[in-house]
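Q: Entry one of two.
A:
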Amino acid sequence: MWAPDIYEGSPTLVTAFLSIAPKISLFANMSRVFLVGSYGGTLQQIFFFCSIASMILGALAAMAQTKVKRPLAHSSIGHVGYIRTGFSCGTIKEIQSLLIGLFLYASMTIDAFAIVIALRQTRVKYIADLGTLAKTNPISAITFSITMFSYAGIPPLAGFCSKFYLFFAALGCGAYFLAPVRVVTSIIGHWAAGRLP
């Protein structure tokens, strides 16, 4: 719950680093644990629960935000839930989809924060301020829109591919109860990300 405050209060470069580096190191260490040994049903249930909780929290909390950086923080929380499903069953296919998802998430986050850095120079701080961005800087507006739609998982974009691989990897191992949660949180994420551009 501290992430949105840290995202808002920190310089944008530090925020971008805090958005990407801990997740990559966490999942690298988890992959290392996965490769060294296996885990039982209890740990699998913990992964399922944490995935669901993270997806729901990230999607619902992003709905009430008015500043530009705060929805990115909640999107980060939700994406951890999506990526964490890669560890849910412990198969190689899920780990592969996890790595694809992690790479695409890092790419989208770098792009989003590069645009936020550019927007800070124009004093865009609130979501309502983005309405004039198309008139003042159309290239940044288009790029930011594409990035946010990719975060949301709109089909032809990279975020969709990430969620697609992770979704079907989880279904492949029988985690059918994650499907409705992922669909609902993706729909909420579409609405929250659609407010930004």
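Q: Entry two of two.
A:
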Amino acid sequence: MFNPLQGWRSEPAPFHQGYSAFVNGKWKKLDSPTKTIVDGSNTPTRFSVWSWNIDFKLDVPVARMRAALNHVRSLVASQGGIPCIIMFNEMVASDLELIGDDEWVRETYNVTDLTGEHWNYPNFPPGFGYGTCILVPKVFPIKAVFRVYYPNSSMQRDALFVDIAIPRDKVLRICTTHLESLVARPPKRPAQLATAAKILHQAHAGILAGDLNAIERFDWTLHQENKLKDAYLETGGKPGDEAGMTWGLMGRSYDRQRYGLSRMDKVLFCGKTAVLDYGTFGLDVEVEDEVDRQKLMASWGLQKGWVTDHLGVRAEFQIEEVE
């Protein structure tokens, strides 16, 4: 049971899963934590984080993920060489296969997940359901990759962490999480974010991004209760402002009329790091084939052949006190 003042009676233990690197023409699974000393003396201290939820339930998943990945690639290419950490929520097995087959990914990134074997579906075969994945630029030396499964989740949700070695033997800890959807009584998201935040605070700098399903009023202050900063608010965004909304702009008209707009997706951070910039991306990105567009519009009542119902969120950071 979760006590908001004390945490879980028994804190969920991290599950180390390793990651994959494309070496000599094939993906190679590497252990976590690493068995050798990881040198972070040359790790870039300025970088950006990009997070996007790609709706798992819509039709033509391969076409949608291909268009989404192509869009992300074009955005990363415009960043002037700044390393970009990419986080995806609601990945399905075909999404991970496409990521693993992509030449740009193979050349540029190490990947936490190429199958769904570490997603928390204990009573189903590997790869069932949907989950999270992080693409880590190869310039970042990885010390560890691990998940923490939320004990109170009825939707198999977890937090995926990557520890990156940075100068002066410090650690940058990044996390993507997809908090519990919908309304629950008692609420489940406060306990889940508290678990992830506690782990983030243990590093020199911590950054968390993902679909936080911030659909209720209490969600607005969860970052403050966990001593986290909100990149959107820190860069001048206003609570409740339509300019900050990430869900409801690309979906069925019925859903928008019933639920309105919301800022479900966020970038939160703590420790010795400063946010330099924040924004959203992915508005009106559609599948590339007209037949696929028409199928999405006809089957789901969409106005366009959108790849997902969420905007992505991005933020640029500078790590401090490592010189």
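A: Comment on entry two: Helices lie at 61-77, 93-101, 103-108, 189-200, 222-225, 231-234, 253-259, 290-300. The chain has eight helices and 17 strands.
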